[in-house]
Amino acid sequence: MTKTFSASVWQEGEWYIAQCLEVDIASQGEDEASALRNLEEALELYYEEPRATIAPQVFQIQVKLNAA
């Protein structure tokens, strides 16, 4: 599946910053094209399905709450 995102790109010092406007993700690069490529990779990782290497454990805890 592919999805289209909007990105804002600006220069800070020697680096170009690319920020996704729909999701709070940003990246940087030495030029505009590399900043956008790095942002694309960051978005792919953000939306990647999580894969546990060890099955998660489920615990029950009791917490004492003071009524206000």
Defining traits:
single chain, 68 residues, alpha+beta, Double Stranded RNA Binding Domain, three-stranded antiparallel sheet
**CATH class placement:** Alpha Beta
- Tell me the CATH topology: Double Stranded RNA Binding Domain
Indicate the mean pLDDT: 94
**How do the strands of the widest beta sheet line up side by side?**
1-2-3
Element-level helix/strand string? EEEH
Strand content: 15-25%
Task: Specify the structural class.
Answer: alpha+beta
The stretches of 5 or more residues where confidence is low (pLDDT under 50) are: none
Find the count of extended strands (DSSP E, 2+ residues): 3
How many strands, which pairing sense, and closed or not: the largest β-sheet? 3 strands, antiparallel
Instruction: State the separation between the terminal residues, measured CA to CA.
Output: 49 Å
Whole-number count of domains: 1
Roughly how many Å is the radius of gyration? 19 Å
Q: What percent of residues adopt helix (DSSP H or I)?
A: 10-25%
* Number of alpha- plus pi-helical segments: 1
Shape: elongated
User: In CATH terms, what is the architecture?
Assistant: 2-Layer Sandwich
